[in-house]
Amino acid sequence: MTDFPKPPFDRQRPLTPPARDADMDPRPDYGEAHYKGSGRLSGRKTIITGGDSGIGRAVALAFAREGADVLVSYYDEHDDARETCRLVESAGRKAVAVPGDVKDPMHCRSIIEKAVSAFGQVDVLVNNAAHQKTFANPEEISDEEWQVTFATNIHAMFYLVKAALPHMKAGSAIINTTSVNADTPSPQLLAYATTKGAIQNFTGGLAQMLAERDIRVNCVAPGPIWTPLIPSTMPEEKVRTFGSQVPMKRPGQPCELAPVYVMLASPESSYVSGATVAVTGGKPII
After folding, report:
1. Which of 56, 66, 213, 284 makes a 20 to 30 Å CA pair with 185?
2. Is 84 inside any structural domain?
3. Using an 8 Å Cβ cutoff, are 174 and 206 in contact?
4. Known catalytic residue: 192?
5. Is the dihedral of CA 104, 147, 200, 279 positive or negative?
6. Catalytic member of 35, 159, 192, 261
């Protein structure tokens, strides 16, 4: 609990989106040096959106070390995606990189088609790609910004799930990344927080719909996590003190979320569906 960086992050300079992992100081911890697998996802075929860096990279690494093949869906951060694929392949698993915009329903269907072509099936779908920006008041949020946030964060989940389901057998799992903002919305993240509430509701409804097919659906609600999204979308002072507001007084590292995704993807969680698992550094969610 105490081995990870704490604010203030005085060395981190402001970044512009899309930020790259290499631009961050300190660099995020993805678990490269310490995550050890035990075959919990042996032979599973998985898809992770937003898999190039941040939470997605940590989950990809953990899935691979647990025995899963991984399709890495990402926007255009090619260098970061190549590094994620390298980590997957270094664990002896197959990696497939698919760039493109998940706001496009056709691209979402293409992601599933490429996974099926490469792997033959889909066992785990991790809907993790996200867009956020901060604004002081509603008038600053353009119509386009509102639409981009919803299209990326929640509409894409529906397109991907609908395309994936014909290729998912009993025992498969869907894991959606929501946020602590679903329960305690930050006013500066109005559009983002609203989509995160929608994701939590989508997860609960979908879990009930798919229970008869023996497909589980859950979501993970991170608190402040140190990823490239943070210094590229938040004011400099908020980045400097990022994570200080939670009881642990620091942001979480991506590697600290990965075990939760592994648990939810694993058959060990056979009675867990419709749940929200909070990873918030001690901050309770309602």
Report:
1. 56
2. yes
3. yes
4. yes
5. positive
6. 192
